[in-house]
Specification:
alpha/beta, about 10% strand, about 725 residues, Growth Hormone, Chain: A, 25 helices, five-stranded antiparallel β-sheet, Rossmann fold
Amino acid sequence: MKIPSPLIKRLSITAILASLFFSGIAGIVNQVVWQRALKIFLGGSETISSMVVILVFLLGLGLGAALMGKYAPRLKHPLYVFALIEVLLFVTNALIAVLLSYDISESIYSAQRLAISSGVSIRLVYAIGALLILLPPTVLMGATLPIASEACQRQLGATRTSLITGLFFLNTIGAVIGAFGSSFFLLPYFGQKTSLFTAALCNLGAAVILVIISTRFKAVAPHSTKEKEDAPRPRSWFKPSLGETLGFGLGFFALSYEIYLFRLIALIHKPLPYTFATTLCIFLLFWSLGVFISSKLKPHMTWVFLATVITILITPYIFHFNRWIYGFPLVPLGAIYFIPSLFFGILYGVLVSDTAQGSWGKNVGRFYAYNTTGSCLGIAAFTLIGYEMPLSNGAWLIAIGVAALGLFYIQRKAPQPNKFSLILQFSQVAALLAIAGISYQGLIQAFSSSNNGLVRTYWGRDGVVDLHADGNVHLDGLWHTQLSTKNSHVGRSYTWMMAVAAVLSHNEEPVRDVLVIGNGVGITSSTLSLLPDVKIDTYEVNNTLKNLLKDYPKECLEVTSNPKIHIIWTDARSGMALNEKKYDIIVSAPLYLRQAGSSLLLSNEYFTLLKSRLKPGGVVAVYSHEGPPAQSMLVRRTVSSLFEYQQSFDKGMIITASDQPIQIDPDRLARRASKSNPFLLQLFQYDQALKRARDESIFDRIDQPSFPISKGRHMITDDHPLVEYPKIAEELVHSQ
């Protein structure tokens, strides 16, 4: 075979960069979709479910990098192996897409019930399930960068380690494009399955490119044969080099900061799908720019560590100004929050280039494995500890950790022990003690609160609860409701009226069993508890609310001490799936239709599960109106696909549904209103107050006629969470 010319080698390197670009697109599209798809079956809080998926994702990347780092130097044709990996990724990701296209929920729920009955922890079941599904493709993804590095060095003859940073840069830029494309285009327009097939096609495109260029290059002697006599003894994984140790620490604190940003940005700009997508895109973009800068400037590491610490420490002050004094947009002014990620990228680029000396495949694989291991621990630590404390404490925790890492680097890089060595060692110990102290505070003061004089904030891993001086409650930056003073809650659309609409629509007597999905501050469930002889189960996923309910019992209508109410602190889909109890009434109210993840409590699959938990003649009440009319139409259309009869209230804000006709008789209700039924008595008194004040009746809040439902192919499904994207919903629904 003819030896390739320098031009062919340069073009081949460009082709490898293009392959990593496409592979990066596929990888992040998969992560975005898997995180959403598996959340349905992982149960528990949104934060914990997301953490499990990301941990398994990074664990697979690290394992794949470690394995390829070990075997890459022994391979005779790295380009072929690289192409084979991309082919396997195409096949694996396509199979996962096909698997998710089937309704396997009942099989999964049956397995979970079996595990619980056998005494197996449900969290263990979730973790094993995520491992079985995600580990094979993520191990393959983790192998791509080490094998690409090895191919460039041995088959293409590359010698400058700055090329390695180029590989990481293009791979991450691909991830930026993938995050943007999946979150802003593929998911809202086409759904999860199409997004996964698109990712698989990107892997196939990378494989085709690699197969074409691999035919230009012949096999080469492995490092183990070529340099057998001169090769140093392989290092133990328990004895990392300086660069690998720093890579581990860098992964820990960089991913801690990313998790920190997800909460910070969501509180300012609301937890919407676009908010999370934009945060991910900008973080990856700044990080990749940092990697690129490192290959061009070779900056002084000490100053980069210092700049990283300073920019992290000022973040909470910018947040306070941004949230409470002057709100500025996420793009472009909000980019100031991502400056630390630029410095994290610079540090990463310098360290990976320095560490890769010698065998690129082996050393890049080891560094990548240490870095992703640190990333896994950083995500777990900040989710489980950092989210339990105010944002200012979290910033100090990360900044001190980066400072300790910088001090360790300076000490190890010193040519010989000197008079500053003792000071450096003392500073490292002090930094570690500070980290331990802040972390301990987060552990022993779970759901700790802070108060800026106007707003009391409860911090917890499941979410942030803000209580304003006027009694308004915000969950994760979105208005939820207002605490009650005396009977101020009576008449409110979102809470009190949800309970009233459900009871008015229920024709059978008596109402014995009720389920409230989304307990919140307890107004809906407490209102329903006024029914005689009723038993109420409520699902609430946000454990952070516990302290609010404890601190303000009267304002929350004594919901936690009410013997009729049983609060179950878990997500509704897992709760209903694992508990087959049936109810007369189910009240279901996602916080906001446009909030990220709201479709999990609005999809066709969810309402199918909900319907299976209703008694004959049972009624479901759903919050169904917000923003553009298309969102409300999607909710009503999805409900109507399963229930024959519907009735809307408060101009479409609430919809009730049943398999029996809904007939509301004002005269019958008036006759039943008595002291023996506190619920109907409260309803009757409110009705009389309306007549005196505005010459209106409670029955004027029943839409006559009920809001219409247009037919169309678009509805809310687990695969296609269209309701979370109001503008696209308007476009697609009205185009039919």
